[in-house]
Design a protein that fits this description.
The structure holds two protein chains of two kinds.
Chain A (H helix, E strand, L loop, with lengths): L3 H21 L8 H27 L1 E2 L2 E2 L2 E12 L2 E9 L1 H24 L6 H19 L4 H19 L6 H32 L4 H9 L4 H8 L1 E2 L2 E2 H16 L8 H4 L5 H10 L4 H8 L1 H7 L1 H22 L5 H22 L8 H31 L15 H15 L5 H16 L1 H26 L15 H16 L26 H18 L5 H8 L1 H8 L4 H48 L6 H22 L2
Helix pairs in contact in A: 1-2, 1-4, 2-3, 2-4, 3-4, 3-11, 3-16, 3-20, 4-5, 5-6, 6-9, 9-12, 9-14, 11-15, 11-16, 13-14, 14-15, 14-19, 15-16, 15-18, 15-19, 16-17, 16-18, 16-20, 17-19, 17-20, 18-19, 19-21, 22-23
Chain B lengths: L6 H21 L3 H25 L6 H31 L13
The chains are: A mainly alpha, B mainly alpha.
Chain lengths: ~650, ~100
């Protein structure tokens, strides 16, 4: 059996880092804070690897099926019998995998930041926030209770708010962190309502019990949840769709994606950590966590997941082709790849061969974490070198930044799905799953993967080839701390695809043979290569081909460049429609009717008491008159009235 | 013709004295005058006691005792009142009741 203390230490060590550096970082550990945070995370990462090894190879498998182990469960708040908020640890293939991914990427980011954030005034605070974020994310993945996951979910939101707004003296960063917090918080409202619906019908908050009760055919909880309906849709579907709304908010799915590009205002290592590898996959993780319910009892909700994912993937890829800020391109590519993971879950069925989409989604999550973190860290190195985010300031950097160049190229090849890099394997599985279960989504995905290759290589050629950059400086790549994570992640991005992922992670815990279909992968690889060559033709040398193409597609280009005006639409909806039609009348009612009633009570009381208090005038003779009148009154009372 | 005073005469005087006292208490602003008015009221009560004792229960002494009590208390009360008035004068340079109205809401 697993050693609970080791597992519990995985999230608790980063928390300890947060507390130590948050409380004493600025005074005591001014110079050593980065080392402390990194060492704590190194320990955490080693423990995660140890746990993963133990789980996958020693105790996790019983009779060929990976079990959902709950080595620790503490009842925290008990509402009624069976309904309680527990603090527990759940170990199953996806949570163990996420432990490794989160700690590994976070460790890379910690190391990288040692050099990248060097000299920053609030360096210890940065490491404290990183620790808090890592703690929340690790707590989220090992939650054994749906309410526990909600708590950590919000903690993740708060820590991302803190990190995005790290440069709090920039108005744009402040606006971005507020936007991210408000949008995800709005989505979390749906998540909370979903939790309430699910727990209302299933009488439990515990994941294992919840899944078991809501997937047992003919079970009383499932019957009541499916028979109750609202607007012609069953309560269970509503609940799952609302839970997915929370996931869509965190994972930046259309139409709740607007916060992600703006979140690039944070420091680049943060973008790598939060907006590439960990936080944004929380939504995917949540859907995967509840996948049996989605697949077995609420297929309509799963359909929503599939289409939202597919639309987001396509939508973001189109926008990414037009952006000029390199971090924004990466942000949209993240959104697109998360869309891939989402629709892979959406098209999947439960169990056996039909669960291919589930495995593929988790596989893509894993490989994507590698190459996307690498892309962001590489972009960080470029930005560090050139001091600009804009593509037009870059070019010809392959000579100045050789290691960044090679690793960035590996990541680009991986994300474009070129064999034998990691992204190829996971993307093939996703496409295969889509092909088997939903042809419409397959075609969307196929086109999107072509677009992916195009925009990634547009980025690559613009940074490392094209014209010579004018901003090139003498200083090199930025030392060991920057290069080491790039190399490690580069190895991961190149080799992670060879892991036989299906035998570890599958929808029902049994091993899934990953078959390789040569004839099937011809189309996506060909499209990917076409995208790469198109990008090469357009951007490798300085030319006006790109401008010509943009001009010939002027309407589409303009719309995509402005992100299809979604931000403007939201602004219109909130500022014009909601503020004017709901906010203003509500404010008027609040100020005049609600406040009016309260003020009226207060003023009346004040007036009456002002009138009464005049009785106590301080004049002795007036008191004497009251006394006399009282005595006369009593005399009259006793003599004439009460006889 | 000797005018023998009866109970009613004395009660009339007593009542007159009482209301003169009350009137003085309410209309004077000088604390010493008010104190004097109170003495008038007390004395009107004393008169009542004596009169009832003499005319209604001539062979008992309760009224007399009460009167003596009242006189004793009145003396004590006058001492206290004068002390208060002196202190008031020291702090306010006046013994006008209308100018000593700080003790209020």
């Amino acid at each position: 059996m697993p050693n609970v203390i080791y597992i519990a230490l995985i999230p608790l060590l980063p928390l300890a880092g947060f507390l130590i550096l948050g409380l004493w970082g600025r005074k005591v550990f001014k110079n050593s804070s980065g080392i402390i945070g990194t060492l704590l995370l190194l320990t955490s990462c080693a423990l995660a690897l140890y746990t993963a090894y133990g789980y996958f190879f020693e105790y996790g498998k019983v009779a060929g099926v990976y079990q959902k182990l709950v080595p620790l469960q503490l009842t925290w708040l008990e509402f009624s019998k069976g309904v309680s908020i527990d603090m527990g640890i759940i170990l199953d293939p996806i949570s163990v995998m996420m432990l490794v991914v989160v700690t590994f990427v976070s460790l890379m980011v910690h190391i990288y930041s040692l050099a990248y954030m060097k000299g920053d005034e609030r360096f210890p605070i940065f490491y404290a926030f990183l620790g808090l974020f890592t703690f929340s994310m690790l707590g989220l993945v090992i939650s054994s209770n749906i309410f526990q996951i909600y708590i950590f979910w919000e903690l993740v939101g708060v820590s991302s708010f803190l990190l995005i707004g790290y440069y709090y003296d920039r108005p744009s960063a402040v606006a971005a962190c507020k936007k991210a917090f408000i949008v995800t918080r709005f989505a979390d409202l749906g998540f909370l309502i979903g939790i309430l619906i699910l727990s209302y019908y299933s009488h439990t908050l515990d994941f294992n019990t919840l899944i078991q009760r809501l997937t047992t055919p003919g079970g009383s909880e499932l019957m009541s949840a499916t028979s109750a309906s609202f607007l012609g849709v069953s309560a269970l579907t509503w609940g799952m769709a609302l839970v997915f709304m929370g996931g869509a908010g965190k994972s930046a799915m259309f139409p709740l994606h607007i916060w992600l590009p703006d979140a690039m205002e944070g420091p680049t290592p943060v973008s790598a950590l939060i907006h590439a590898a960990t936080m944004v996959v929380a939504g995917v993780f949540l859907v995967a966590r509840l996948f049996p319910i989605f697949a077995l009892s609420a297929p309509e909700a799963l359909n929503i997941v599939a289409y939202v994912g597919a639309i987001s993937a396509m939508f973001a890829a189109v926008i990414a082709c037009t952006q000029t800020d390199i971090k924004r391109v990466l942000a949209y590519s993240t959104m697109s790849q998360i869309g891939f993971m989402m629709f892979a879950l959406g098209v999947s069925k439960y169990g056996g061969e039909n669960g291919l989409g589930y495995t593929a989604s988790m596989f893509h999550l894993f490989t994507h974490a590698m190459f996307k973190a690498l892309l962001f860290l590489g972009a960080g190195a470029v930005i560090h070198y050139i001091h600009s985010n804009e593509m037009k300031d870059m070019g010809g950097l392959r000579k100045h930044l050789p290691i960044t160049h090679i690793t960035f190229l590996i990541a680009c090849l991986a994300i474009s799905g070129v064999p034998p890099f990691a992204g190829f394997f996971s993307k093939e599985e996703i496409l295969l799953a889509a092909y088997q279960h939903n042809q419409a989504i397959y075609w969307i995905a196929l086109i999107t993967s072509g677009l992916t290759a195009f925009y990634m290589f547009r980025l690559y050629f613009n940074i490392f080839w094209n014209k010579e950059s004018h901003g090139a400086h003498g200083h090199g790549e930025g030392g060991f701390a920057i290069v080491l994570p790039l190399i490690l992640l580069g190895v991961g991005a190149a080799a992670a695809g060879f892991i036989p992922f299906g035998s570890f992670v599958s929808s029902d815990g049994t091993a899934l043979e990953s078959k390789f279909h040569l004839e099937f992968s011809i189309a996506p690889v060909a499209l990917g290569l076409a995208g790469i060559f198109l990008a090469m033709w357009m951007y490798k040398k300085e030319s006006n081909r790109a401008d010509k193409l943009a001009a010939s597609l002027s309407g589409l280009y303009k719309a995509a460049y402005h992100k299809f005006y979604i931000d403007e639409l939201y602004l219109f909806l909130t500022k014009k429609v909601i503020f004017n039609l709901i906010g203003r009348p509500a404010a008027w009612i609040d100020r005049n009717i609600v406040d009016g009633a309260v003020n009226l009570t207060g003023n009346t009381t004040a007036a009456i008491s002002g009138w009464i208090k005049g009785v106590q005038s301080g004049k002795v003779q007036q008191y004497a008159i009251y006394f006399l009148v009282g005595v006369i009154g009593l005399a009259v009372l006793f003599i004439y009235i009460i006889k | 013709m000797t005018l023998e005073p009866g109970l009613y005469h004395i009660l009339f005087i007593s009542a007159a004295l009482f209301f003169i006292g009350v009137f003085g208490f309410f209309t004077r602003r000088n604390l010493i005058t008010m104190l004097m008015s109170i003495e008038l009221i007390l004395n009107s009560v004393n008169l009542n006691f004596i009169a009832f004792n003499k005319y209604v229960w001539p062979n008992r002494l309760d009224g007399l005792f009460f009167t003596i009590f009242v006189i004793a208390i009145a003396a004590a009360e006058a001492a206290v009142a004068i002390a208060i008035i002196i202190n008031l004068y020291r702090s306010h340079q006046s013994i006008d009741v209308d100018r000593t109205t700080e003790l209020k809401y």
